[in-house]
Specification:
mainly alpha, rod-shaped
Length: about 70
């Protein structure tokens, strides 16, 4: 897919795609192209893991309670 198509597919700007050093691009005849499968892999590697704040809060409270009991 072209850079414009890749930008539309990912929701990112063409400039962001240009700066993505770990995203492979191809230049047959000088035209920059991307493979959809490689874009999908790149996106999946770049995902940020969701943090469960409730779980962290409960664990922190439990740890504090244990420290107060021991102290």
């Amino acid at each position: 897919m072209t850079k414009k198509e890749a930008a539309a597919y990912t929701g990112l700007s063409a400039r962001t795609l240009d700066s993505a050093r770990d995203l492979r691009r191809y230049k047959p005849g000088g035209k920059i192209l991307f493979r959809k499968s490689e874009i999908d892999t790149w996106i999946n590697k770049s995902k940020v893991q969701r943090i469960d704040l409730d779980s962290i809060s409960k664990k922190a409270k439990h740890a504090i309670d244990e420290l107060l009991k021991a102290g």
